[in-house]
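note to self — DONT lose this again. spent like an hour looking for the file last time. sequence + predicted structure for the chain T wanted, 363 res
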Amino acid sequence: MAWDNQQPPWGQRKGGKTPEEQLGDLINKIKKFFAGGSQGGGSGGDSGKSEESKIPRTSPGTIAAVIGAGLVVVFLLFSFYAIRPGEQGVVLRLGQYSHTTNPGLNFRIPLVDVVHRVDMETVRREQFGFRTRVVDGKTQHQKQGFTHESLMLTSDRNVIDMEWVVQYRVDQPFNFLFRIRDVPQAVRDVSEMTMRRLVGNMDFDEVLAARAILANNMAYELQKILNYYESGVRIITVQLQDVNPPEAVKPAFNDVNVASQDMKRVINEAEEIFNREVPRARGQARQVIEEAHGYKIERVNRAVGATTRFNELLVQYKRAPGVTRQRLYIETMRAVLPQVTEVIVIDSDLESVLPMLPVAGAR
């Protein structure tokens, strides 16, 4: 064989020959043995006898032993197989599931066991609404031709353009191989169905504002459905790449956004004025109410005091009317006279306050 005399790339080979090399040597020996047995037809008598004497005589038992040893070597070579790191092997014995093997050297029954290797570490992904293309060493996203995947209808009857990526790994290799015929296509179909259902239950603004919540709900619902189908995969993440209105309505949508921003700005300004003026008006109203309440208490207390004083004077007046009347007159004059700036004394015989000078002829 071509690799019999080659050294491995990691250095000098240690120990004896490998099973492949031993098998190759055995095949070469068998070829040489049968090739030597067919060279007995020489031309001369003595020369023919001399040539025949040089050919070794081998009994049928030896040939059978050599063939049996070769079969044993072949059996041993096909009885062991290696599973690389990050893989698992699903063993079918006579078409029925037998067991799952881990990375390393494992044993199987030749012609009875069939091993299917499954990559458990590679992260597989499905893209929706776009495809990634590598052009001249640069990654580009191609969106043309995939609008049938990205255009969806929201609950408020608006059309939205969504692009997302689903990443998953193999979790159960037997289910991945034999439960569903085409697992990637099943992941695509279930993902698109689930996303359309979730978006259809949300309005347009909610989809734009709650992208993280939508992605988490999408991953949960997708894993739930795939588990029900026994797909054997585990969802790692759902990434929403782009969520926008369709290209045809983007200008109108931008105008609506501008109007919405203006509306929010006016509302914020109005709320600012409201928060500034209303508390001030409430404080002023509270102040007026407190002042009125204090004025009421003052007037009531003053009236109650005057009433009490009058009742006490009435009692004294009933006991001594003259003395009480005189005392009230004096108290009143004491309170009034200090405020008078001019005092006019009128004679009791004077009929008018205006004095008249004596006219001519009077003495």
